[in-house]
Amino acid sequence: MFSTTLRPEDSPIAGPADAPGANPPGGTEAATPGRAEQAPAAAQRTYMVRTLGCQMNVHDSEHMAGMLEQAGYTRAEAADEAAHHADVVVINTCAVRENAATRLYGNLGQLASIKARRPGMQIAVGGCLAQKDRSGIVEKAPWVDVVFGTHNLDALPVLLERARHNEAAQVEIAESLQVFPSTLPTKRESVYAGWVSISVGCNNTCTFCIVPHLRGKERDRRPGQVLAEVQALVDQGAIEVTLLGQNVNSYGVEFGDRGAFAKLLRACGEIEGLERVRFTSPHPAAFTDDVIAAMAETPNVMPQLHMPLQAGSDRVLRAMRRSYRSEKFLGILDRVRVAMPDASITTDLIVGFPGETEEDFAETLRVVEASRFSSAFTFQYSQRPGTPAATLPDQLPKEVVQERYERLQALQDRVSAEESARQVGRTVEVLVTEGSGRKDGATHRLTGRAADNRLVHLAVPDEVVALMAGRSDADVTADDPRLADDLDPRLPRPGDMVSVEVTRSAPYHLVADSVLAGGTYAVRRTRSGDAWVAREKTRLGGGDDHGHSHGASATGGPVSLGLPSLRRP
Q: Which residues contact 298 (CB under 8 A, 6 or more apart)?
């Protein structure tokens, strides 16, 4: 365990006068009578968690929220979260990309002036960058109160209390996993879909990746523990689960069963009430045909696969220590599509790896064209200190990487548009999510995900538009028609399913306006929709909360992350 206590003379946590944007010593705003906010009593302290990074981080943030609620904190209201007006602000960081530190310190700079006006406010930094930079965070941002790592999430409430009592910043970084995260209290971000970790850490040695260094060697949960958590989520109303691991295909190696992941998928198919199962991410080197068979033969495992390619050049893959080659990757995709012709396949791609030639890049373009990805997360290579690739010769000039990145993105945009166009005319069942698309307010559409995880914006009948006029998920009130006992059968709630026909496509979303022409539109009520109603009624002061937490209270404001899904590129 790496543990540091920084005293007030070293770390002025109570008044960050030297913080960017803060008041100078003896300055005006914080010292002006009537301007400083009063610190609330401990029992009334509010929190917010801001997440930067991957699905693992999102799920870790749910654990952080669960622990804080178990310790007596309450989640800040949506408007206060937007303004960072909470008594405890936790930033869960990512260290994968080069701009990770820039994003973190940009956030901390904004928080410094808020803290100067808010006595008693605390700032905590966790996650991968905290694991990597340790006490350097407090040295650069001395108004931070707590720094904790990926291996000791459970320490957060204790460190916050210790920082308050000692009036000194607390830095505690464990070198190995202290408590398996899934045993911690969990404040779920969604009532209808949830993340379930099947493993943590990674045994691969990709030369560009810092994750194994920060999250450690792979540790697998036993299948019974995973299935018990899935069952608990279903019992609470969820109908979709996403299984999480840095490399799900290697699941089971730790306890001696190389076929464990396929067996786990099939076991999920036996859970009554679980309608959609997804997983992320598999590694092509470990992807086996028994997993393809389990996906195709288990009705609730969705026809969707996110599998990182990273590069199409075998020479670059070798330099990356990715233990597969492009033809093996394409062969896996061929077998997946034979078993599941309508499968949607997405990927990760890195442009500009050290030594990448124009011929190497042309190979990436070739493989991307052949793969027919529905979308891809494309990244410009980032030098990460501590990774083998950071010291490789032939680091490429920024302008070369940028030009290749733009060419790759243009190709993927075209392929995505072509693959989306193939969906027009299909009838899809859409799981309606909380939140909305950027234009949904103007177009009067709802947003959700099809079985293959494609984003769908769907029109609703005019009568539903009238019922929901001026309303949004961000401001659910007691008279919301979705909470009514005599619910209009045409009005879907978050968590309900709607069958519609795709009428139009764009590269990264589909439009289903079939109801406007008298076509397909059918709402199917679900237990998840019921759970959403129960949660909102509890939040508004009435009704029974069925709960959607693991060892923590489920009360609190509406949540916004919604369905676990891949971000649109």
A: 265, 266, 268, 269, 277
Sign of the torsion formed by the C-alpha atoms of 561, 563, 564 and 569: negative
Q: Is the peptide bond before 514 cis (omega within 30 degrees of 0)?
A: no
Q: Token digits for 327?
A: 């033809």
| Token reading at 228 | 């018990």
Residues 6+ apart with CB under 8 A from 391: none
| Predicted confidence band of residue 289 (pLDDT cuts 50, 70, 90) | very high
Residue in 108, 104, 88 with CA at minimum distance from that of residue 96: 104
Q: Which residues of 183-203 are buried (b: 16+ CB within 10 A; e: fewer)?
A: ebbbbbbbbbbbbbbbbbbbe
User: What torsion, rounded to 10 degrees, do the Cα atoms 211, 215, 216, 219 define?
Assistant: -120
The answer on pLDDT for 532 being more than 90 is yes
Task: Say whether 123 sits in a helix, a strand or coil.
Answer: strand
Edge-to-edge strand order for the sheet containing 240-244? 193-197, 240-244, 276-280
Q: Is the pLDDT of residue 496 over 70?
A: yes
Q: Would you say 138 and 8 are in contact if contact means Cβ atoms under 8 Å apart?
A: no
Decide: residue 116, CB within 10 A, 0-12 exposed, 13-18 middle, 19+ buried: buried
Most confidently predicted of 9-13, 204-208, 353-357: 353-357
Asked if 369 contacts 398 with a C-beta cutoff of 8 angstroms, the reply is: no
* Average of per-residue pLDDT values in the chain: 85
Question: Does 23 score more than 60 pLDDT?
Answer: no
Please say whether the beta carbons of 184 and 160 come within 8 A.
no
pTM for this one? 0.79
Angle between helices 398-421 and 358-371 (to 10 degrees): 10
Each residue of 415-462: pLDDT tens digit? 999 999 999 999 999 999 997 666 767 788 999 999 999 999 999 999
Contact 205, 250 (CB under 8 A): no
Instruction: State the residue for tokens 């190995």.
Output: 176
